[in-house]
Specification:
single chain; 389 residues; alpha/beta; Trna Endonuclease, Chain: A, domain 1; six-stranded mixed sheet; 23% strand
Length: 389
């Protein structure tokens, strides 16, 4: 099943073209494999100092290689004339005609230049979908294989896979292409258990930390963010990791909880390691050739100690490190991880004292660190908060 981005609100389609597009999206979502990602209603813009152009693409299909297929859906009657393809909208009094040929040409040209400008040399193709018409001939301007008519709409999944196969998996290229389209739509993954519209609303509301924290600099390069659950700490982490990956900088994400580490490993950039502290510590200890006896009750304490000792002898390797759930980490762990930063490196420490699992952990300070406190919670619905109160 393909990934659909963004999700479709109920009762969102209001016109013939919108209903046709919605039906087509649902068919592609169910029929295509997870090697594909579907974007819909893609607003694009391109401009210079003297001219600015805007438009919307009905459906964008991206395969796992990062290649792109643009799909334009035109339901109802469409006129094929010698100077192009035309679609008329509205009634007699408000009728207006759109040049479909010019529209698709402009879309293709605009997306190609935008992708090239973003240094994304991926393959780009287009497809015209006419769900209510049967095309019996072809023209020099419109190759038949670039049109899907009513006779072929039932095989739309096969046509898409023939034109844009799943491709060879390219994590780096795919991540950058998806980021390109997601940033255009401000689609930011949220780690909360809520889904659908609630998840999207929480994501938009809690984007504050991810907007202004990256602009803050401190003498030590260390920023501590103390925030409640739902304040946007995880979105901030994703923003920092994605920006670092896009800039070619080495970054890492370390937290305390395995479930959170597994989730971040799925949504963080492909080249960015996301793991728990003990998972990282065990890897470091094994790499140094030391044996671990897990039958000893203090095995994890030994791993943590040996890791800190090993790091003290290693050269710095990171430009950015994000430490999450710091409230459950020991001070020496944090200090050891900070030694991984290069001279101009940056560390962001995320913590919530209210979610502390180990009550024996003591508060600690970091010299010259900038501390930011955020008590806002954008995750809990107001109705639920009102009920709790």
């Amino acid at each position: 099943m393909a990934r659909l981005c963004p999700s479709i609100p109920l009762h969102s389609a209001i016109g013939a073209d919108e209903y046709a597009e919605l039906d087509l999206l649902q068919t592609l979502e169910r029929g295509l494999s997870n090697a594909y990602t579907l974007f819909h209603s893609v607003n694009w813009s391109r401009g210079t100092e003297t001219q600015e152009q805007h438009g919307e693409i009905d459906i964008v299909v991206v395969n796992q290689a990062g290649d792109v297929l643009l799909m334009e859906v035109k339901s109802g009657n469409v006129d094929f004339q010698s100077d192009g393809i035309f679609k008329t909208y509205g009634g007699h009094a408000t009728a207006h005609t759109k040049d479909v040929t010019a529209q698709i040409g402009l879309q293709y040209s605009a997306l190609r230049s935008r992708l090239q400008g973003a240094d994304l040399p991926v393959h780009l193709s287009h497809l015209l979908v006419l769900p209510d018409l049967r095309v019996q001939t072809q023209t020099v301007q419109w190759p038949r294989e670039r049109i899907v008519d009513s006779n072929e709409i039932g095989n739309i999944v096969s046509r898409v896979t023939q034109l844009l196969g799943p491709g060879l998996k390219n994590g780096d290229s795919l991540e950058r292409v998806l980021a390109f389209f997601e940033n255009r739509f401000r689609v930011v993954p949220d780690v909360s258990a809520l889904t659908g519209r609630l998840q999207q609303a929480a994501t938009r509301l809690s984007a504050g930390l991810a907007t202004w924290v990256p602009r803050i600099d401190g003498p030590s390069g260390v920023i501590r963010v103390v925030g409640t659950a739902g304040s946007g700490k995880t979105q901030l982490a994703l923003r920092l990791l994605r920006d670092a990956d896009a800039a070619g900088r080495n970054a890492a994400y370390i937290c305390f909880n395995r479930a959170l580490a597994d989730h971040m490993a799925r949504v963080a950039p492909v080249r960015t390691p996301a793991e728990t502290f003990h998972e990282f510590a065990l890897r470091m200890v094994r790499r140094s050739g030391q044996a671990i006896d897990f039958s000893v009750p203090t095995a994890f304490e030994i791993i943590a100690f040996q890791c800190t000792e090993t790091l003290s002898k290693c050269e710095p390797d990171l430009d950015l490190i994000v430490l999450d759930e710091v409230q459950d980490m020991q001070p020496e762990w944090v200090q050891a991880m900070l030694t991984r930063l290069r001279q101009d490196g940056k560390a962001v420490l995320l913590e919530d004292p209210e979610q502390q699992l180990y009550k024996d952990r003591e508060a600690f300070d970091i010299t010259d660190a900038v501390t930011i406190t955020s008590n806002e919670n954008f995750r809990s619905p107001r109705a639920l908060v009102k009920l709790i109160r």
